[in-house]
Amino acid sequence: MPYSLIQQVILLPLALLVLSSDLAKAEDYPAQSPLPTGQSSESLLLIESINKHFNTHFSYKPDRDDLWLTREAFINRGGGDCEDFALAKYQSLMEAGMPASDFRFVYAYQNTSGIPHIALIHQPSSKVLDSLTSDTASMRQRTDLKERFRFSGTGFYPTNTQNLSRAELKTLQQWQAIIRRTEALALRNLAEAKYTP
Fold this sequence. Notes:
- Helices cover 40% and strands 16% of the residues.
- The protein has 197 residues and is α+β, with helices and mostly antiparallel strands.
- It has a single domain (5-192), classed as C8orf32 fold (Roll).
């Protein structure tokens, strides 16, 4: 019998806390059954739980370089910057059975400082999983951020008819490669997960 949603929400954060290396094995994770996509209450509960877990248990730690940490490196370091939070949440949600197609990364600017920022968006519900707040309000409700564009491992979704500079396009392609590697790792971990009664 697959784990219930409550068991998944409780066990996944516990499994994340006990990871001790960048080379986590599938047996470190509880077996997961695929969750319904979209705006089901189970999906939304899991999204809110994962967002709150990472924001509560890990610290914001900026880096000088645009280095995207693996989830395991993020956990071992005790935190990371905005893209590290987004990537760790994304991998965790995929390993819980949510499809990559439900998510986009958003590149935005913080309105007060103009600092670039990245967060994760659950497309069906418009909820933003962000390192700045545990509230999963939609981008429309986020008056603190000005969205520039959304992207995934394979797509680019501009908010208007803007063009990217060559440097921005190169950076976007690097980010997308990292996202694709994370997706492959999450799918491998999900496929290798063993059911333990």
